[in-house]
Amino acid sequence: MRSRPATTLLPCRLRCFAFACGLARCLACCLACWLGPSPPAHGQGTSEDYERAERLEQLTRNKVFREQVQPNWLPGNSRFWYQVSTGPQQHEFVLVDAERGMRQLAFDHERLAAALAQASGRPARGDRLPLSRLEPAADGGKLRFDAWGRRWEVSLASYELQPLDKPVESAAAPGSANLPTLTAFDSPRPSGNGGDETWVQFANQSDRPVRLFWIDAQGERKQYATLGPKEQHRQHTYAGHVWLVLSEDGTRGTYFEAAAAEATATIDAGALKRL
């Protein structure tokens, strides 16, 4: 992808973030007003400071949503899409066009869920769509995406959906068979602030479907994809981000932390431990 000069790209991206993150800033201001002014800081926090912090965490846990934007830039660097949490285990996909000053839902979530369920034979909900690698057409007429181990294309006029010729595993990076392997761990932990951009190649070698969740900085789960038996999924992420692979019934799982270099996360029958 050809990048714009820094003098052009930086103002464009700043406009994008200012446009997409306004709600998060308003929410922060409202919370600050509700909690009241803090006493002047004198080095070590007082017991009231710690109680106030604990109260804020309790008040916002599983209640504050749409608070984080992780942009996925599209060719041309003037548009990006992002997935935003809208409720417990719920999310939606938003498309931002900085040049036009527009922010809108990337598609009709309910219509796409119905089309995906019909085409795949699996249940799908509009507020829990397991999509990744969205690729909206420049004219807004079509959308390509990954779901359940396949690459799909949908017409946004008729919502006719068809799988493309190549499954997702063909989208793996060249030489992915020689990638280093990530070590799984059983104890949950939140993602770090995130380092450089990287990729993780998730390989489900078990005979059952698994679900893939990103663990955010607050330790909350955000679903990104579902992998069928023997399927693979190449996930864009950042070094230090933590990912949970969960069994379909939610009783077993394992965690992986993305490394600076692209690596493989292998899921076999023995990898998922009881949670």
DSSP E strands, number: 16
Give the rounded overall mean pLDDT: 78
Biggest β-sheet description: 5 strands, antiparallel
What is the H/E order? HHHEEEEHEEEEEEEEEEEE
Q: Helices and strands: which structural class?
A: alpha+beta
Kindly, what is the distance between the CA atoms of the first and last residues, rounded to a whole number of angstroms?
42 Å
Helical stretch tally: 4
Strand order across the biggest sheet?
11-10-13-14-16
Q: Rough shape?
A: globular
Structure description:
The chain has 275 residues and is an alpha+beta fold. The chain contains 4 helices and 16 strands. It has helices at residues 6-20, 22-35, 47-60, 109-120, and strands at 72-73, 79-87, 90-97, 102-105, 132-136, 142-147, 150-155, 161-167, 197-204, 210-215, 221-227, 232-238, 242-247, 252-257, 263-267, 273-274. The protein has a 5-stranded antiparallel beta sheet with strand order 11-10-13-14-16, with no helix packed on it. Strands 1-2-3-4 form a 4-stranded antiparallel beta sheet, covered by helices on one side. Strands 5-6-7-8 form a 4-stranded antiparallel beta sheet, covered by helices on one side. A hairpin with a 2-residue loop joins strand 6 (142-147) and strand 7. The protein is globular.
